[in-house]
């Protein structure tokens, strides 16, 4: 497989930085976050429009209306935007609203039927796609999702390590199992690998430590959930941080160029 750079304009000596709320909640929440992150070295503004909640009854995402808010983020804050897609309708809606980058969530990567549906919807489309690891530590499922998306003709691909679910006591929400990410990097040296420290940690106090650990393992960047009022976020409140806290963390993270 031969890949093209995920983000053409990105210099190799800088980490890929993705930030934004877990979910788009209101236009004001989205734009407030985006304005605070504009011009601060963020490569992609993330926001979930359709949310794959583990249990029913939780906030399932604002839906298509939120895509218009992301368009405003592009226009007003000059940030590229990314959102999660899990089926054909999501892909068509996202493309119609000029979303710059799509991502596959952990609950999609785990299901080859869903990955194939998204891949089929992407045939003939040239857009970068980020692929999160499956929720369970199944290396081949992760690789299989990359292959399915690649076979659809997508060559700008990145992978996101968001940890693996675990039953029992652990300090993480999703245990990192770093070796799987290292093995993936070994198998696909040209694919950028991004650490989703928010979903690994599930809490704020260890976000920086986990992101730094990833960068020390030669990860190519990080994705962090940022919200103007984290405690009152409609999803993943315990792990989100304010734009100011995010920018402070970003300043402190050390990115060393790979020595290979
Ligand atoms: C998210 O990024 O908000 C999300 C739902 O992530 P994951 O698919 O990693 O659980
Ligand atoms: Mn989230």
UniProtKB/TrEMBL annotation:
Keyword match Glycosyltransferase: no
Gene Ontology annotations of biological process type: chorismate metabolic process
Superkingdom per UniProt: Bacteria
EC number, UniProt record: 5.4.99.5
Protein name: chorismate mutase
Keywords, ordered alphabetically: Coiled coil, Transferase
Residues of the full protein shown: 1 to 260 of 361
Molecular function in Gene Ontology: chorismate mutase activity; transferase activity
Keyword Nucleotide-binding: no
